[in-house]
Each structure stands twice: as structure tokens, then as C-alpha cells.
Amino acid sequence: MARTVRTVRKSKEEVHYPRHVKELCQIMEEAKEQGQLRAVMEEEFKKPVSMTGIWECRSYFHMEDENGYEGDTVLLSIRALLATMEGKLKEARCYADMLCEAPAPDEEELTREKFFRLILEMVLPDTTDKRFFQIVCFLERIHTKPIQSLILSACRPSILDGFRDFTPYGKYLVSYKDEITKSVQTLYGNSGKGVYEVALAEWNYQNNKCFDALVLVTGTIPLLESEQDVQCLFVAMALQFRILLVNGQTKMAEPYIKKIRERIQRGGRDELESSLDALECRAALYGGNMERIEAWLEYQAPDENKELYMMDMYAYLIKIRCYLLNGKHMMAIVLAKRLINLIEPVNRYMDLCECYMLSAMACYKAKDNKRLCEELQKALDLAKQYGYYRLLADEGACMVEMLKIYHKEAGADSFTENVLDLAGSVASHFPDYLKSPGEHYGALTEREAEVLRLMARGMSNDMIAEELDKKVGTVKFHTANIFKKLKVQNRQQAVERGYEIGFIGLEKGGTDEKKK
Description:
CATH superfamily of the domain at 302-434: Tetratricopeptide repeat domain
Protein name: LuxR C-terminal-related transcriptional regulator
Strand content: under 5%
Organism: Maccoyibacter intestinihominis
InterPro entries: Sig_transdc_resp-reg_C-effctor, TPR-like_helical_dom_sf, TPR_MalT, Tscrpt_reg_LuxR_C, WH-like_DNA-bd_sf
Keywords: DNA-binding, Transcription, Transcription regulation
Pfam family, one: GerE
Order of helices and strands: EEHHHHHHHHHHHHHHHHHHHHHHHHHHH
Helix content: 55-70%
CATH architecture of the domain at 302-434: Alpha Horseshoe
């Protein structure tokens, strides 16, 4: 929850807050074994703690009777945040109600419980924007800062689309600069310096003002370095990295990621590591670094078969892209739909747009053009309304092909034409981005696929001709086409390539031969 790192002295031992996640979990485990869990929780969670720390300690909270938290403002707030991270918004509201009734944002007497309730409402994603801004104005009026409460990026490389989605207000950033800057200073104090500039840079980037965005964010990074604002610095450096990356600067990916990681570790914000790992994987997707992609999938990617962790939203979106790269279209669309069900009720427009876009990409790769157009239409509606040009265009060649199909079905307009042009520019830098192994080769006709499957069963051309009731010359013709499309020289290579890229399905009769 806290945005700053504080150091205290305890028994001649230097303790840094927020604690490292592993250290916090160890403390909780020892407390449980000693029968002191509740007391230690009350002590530890009154201090600055990261969202990741709360999440990793969730099992200890679930051990405690929730009714026993009544009257404990800190632990009730933690339970509400934990429920939010689990996507259980009704449960989060119940914990908030246990604090006290929702106070009016202009109440004169602000008790401890009412203060915590107001601050909690600012963080809960289903709080209306109107209510959020009312609370901000109230805090400005009483000159009070919501210490240890808010997170800018929510472990995402974004401010506009962080814990709350502020992208609908991006168009007001220039005209309301003074008011926004004042609000940011009220909420974050000195650590909020640079927030406005980074948010404006993000907005410029989405609207394809890439040079303006790059100049602005590059000039802001030294200020953030001097303020030691690690979370905002992470967002700024990640944005700078993305701008350079989609313009073809893949060689700087590894040293730049290393540089960001050093800043995170130096600032003690290990909760940002997950999104940085995902950002590194996205760079690998553009650069075609399969070794790095496979390592991320095996060791670092979140497992959607367990509880969905809302703070890992960015990593889930990268994982969908990995599924698309590996030809796992069904897994991609299932995960996208699960995320949509979580974020749709809380109006996370940019995340929602991205999920619809990725769902459309899965339909495209599965050659379901009807559903492709339906899903892409939903993404386009949001993108047009809020100006997400780069969100769509950065998908490169895949977006180009999808828009060509969409234009044939629904027609073109200035927005889609602009996105098409931008996506074409990205595609020129990364022609193989998100191409599954099979997409590097020519598509086989139904008859050629059947011949290939019979090859896999060890059948000669004569045997295949007899099986299909065709002439041997016809089979040889299909065989030559298969070799050409799969870029191989002989039957054995053709069969191996067929298994490698999924052109030979195990259900089609290739199972026994492959197992042998």
C-alpha cells in the first residue's frame, strides 16, 4: 500500500519497509507456528506493505475469522484490498461496510474509521469516478494526504491505466494541467512529482505523438531518479522502452531491462518484478527470442488455473500473446474471456479493449472471420472513443491482416485507416511478430494434409494412391506441393515438420507412428 520506502532501527538491525515478500511470508509462518498470527498481523500490516506482500500472505488472512476483524481499521482495509485483488468486489464492499457507513465527502468530523473508509473507496475499482474525484477534492480542502493508501501503477507499466483507469480523462490533461497537478500533490506529496508529465507522455503515445511522448518522458526520468520515486520511475522507463522497441530498437532491450531492474531492486520495490518480467517477455516476442519466452512461461508467468490475481493483469495479457505465438488459440480466447468477466464490471476500458483485441486475434488465427469481426468491433468501439491508436497498432502484421478482413465486412473509416497505416509500420520492423510455427509455412489444402497424414503412417506413394483411390501421379503432385510449402527435401523431413507445427493432428491417425 505505501508508496515510499522507510527504514527504521530495531534491535540494532536495519529493517526496510515495505519488507521483501519472502521475509514477510517467513514472519507470518513463524507467527502461525507460535500461535501468534493475529498479533503479528496487527503489528506488521500497520507498517508499509506492498500489494504483492498482501497477496502472498492471503492464506494467513483466510485462517482468521473475519468477524474478529471488526473494529480493526487496518486489517479490515487489508481484507478489502485482498478481496479486490481476488476480483471479489462484493466481498471487498462488505469489509468496507464493516469499517463504517460510507461518509459524505464533505463531513466535518472525520473519525479514524471514516478516514480509512474514504481512502479505501479511492482504491476500490468499482468506486465511481464521480465519487473518487469528490474524495480528492475533500482531501484537498482539509489538506490531508492519504498516506500508505494509494498505488499509481498497481504493478503495471502505466499510470493512466494503473489501479484505476484514467484513460477516459486523457484528453483533459493539457487543459486542466494546474488542477490535475494540485490533486496529484495532494494525494502523493513530493513523490507525485513527474506523475502529470508521465501521464501526458502516455496519452501522447496512445494518440501516436511518439516523438512528443519520448521527449517528455525522457526529460522527466531524471526528476523521478532524484525523488527516488521507484514506481513512477518504473512506469516512465517502461514507456520509454516501449516507444523505442516498437520503432525497431530491439538491440537495446536486454541492457535497458537490466537498467530498470536495478532501479527496482535498489528502491526495494520487488512487487514490480512481475510486470518487468512480463515486459521483458513482450520484448522477446517482438525480437523472436523463443528461449526467453519459454523461460518466462515456465518459471515466471502467472498460472490462470489458480486464483486470478488482478495485480498480474499485465502479465496475463502478455501470456495470451504467448499462447497465440504457440498456436494455442483456444487457450488464448478462454483466458481473454475470463479477464473480460473480471474487468468489465469496473469499467477498465483500456484493459477491456486489449482483451477484445486479443480475442479477435485468436479468432483470426483460428480462421473464424465472423467472430474475428465481432470481437474486433468491440475493441474498435472502445479504441475510437478513448483514442487507443497504439494499443491496436502495436500488434503489427496481425492487426494489418485483421483490419483488411474487417474492412471487407464492415467498411473503413479514418480511425481504422490510421491504425492500419501505423500497424503496417510496426509490421515492417517485426514481420514475424506472434507468428506461430505453422504460419511460417504455406497452408496445406485438405487433400495435401490427408496425404501428409498417410505419409506419417509410413505409407508409400503407391499405398497412398490405393488408399485414396487416386493415381500415383496425383499423389506425387500433392507430395511435391507439400515439400515446397513445408520447405523440406524429403518425406521424413515433411513428417517431422508436420508434427512440429501441428499440421499432423494426433487425432488424425498420426499418434501410433509418432509414439513409435
